[in-house]
Amino acid sequence: MIEIKPVRDVAVILLYNKYGEFLLGRRKEGKFAAGYYELPGGKREDGESLLQTVKRETLEEIGYTLNRPQLIYECHVDYSIGQIPLHVFAEELEAENLSEAVKARSSDYNRPNFPANEAAELIWVTGHKALSLKLLPIMRAMLDLTPFRRLLPNIGPVDLSVDKDVHI
């Protein structure tokens, strides 16, 4: 049975690298929207700023310490569990910010092998490759927006009709 918690602000990170790729996580089975790919992040805790949330969640989920994440997009997302306020931050990966544990797991520090602490898997993808994955509908829609296209120049055309019958 899927546990549904009260609706809270969600802050996520578009962590991108020098290859024009960004990090996506696939939600674990048994969780809300299981199997869908999304940006790493999570719910704001009481008393936290959105910046504190995205930094904490990124550290918890992938073991990476954000340096200077910038807020690039905000919206409200309609789901079957309610309307979720979503705040998207972006930062380019800095290899010098990798922990020793992540460095030990990685052969390329510009495409590190992060631990999937809360996701079923983490993958580095180009915008074009992401469009072939089972994305949360909001994720596909965001890839068609200017702030994302500016940071990920290789997205190509986005077909939003792919998600017209998806109801999460």
Automatic annotation (TrEMBL):
Domain Nudix hydrolase residue range list: 6-150
EC number of the protein: 3.6.1.55
A GO molecular-function annotation: hydrolase activity
Keywords of the record: DNA damage, DNA repair, DNA replication, Hydrolase, Magnesium, Metal-binding, Mutator protein
Keyword Hydrolase included in the entry's annotation: yes
Required cofactor(s): Mg(2+)
Catalytic activity: 8-oxo-dGTP + H2O = 8-oxo-dGMP + diphosphate + H(+)
Record carries keyword Cell membrane: no
Source organism superkingdom: Bacteria
InterPro entries referenced in this protein's UniProt entry, alphabetically: MutT-like, NUDIX_hydrolase-like_dom_sf, NUDIX_hydrolase_CS, NUDIX_hydrolase_dom
Classification via PANTHER family: 8-OXO-DGTP DIPHOSPHATASE (PTHR47707), NUDIX HYDROLASE FAMILY PROTEIN (PTHR47707:SF1)
Similarity remark: Belongs to the Nudix hydrolase family.
Entry protein name: 8-oxo-dGTP diphosphatase
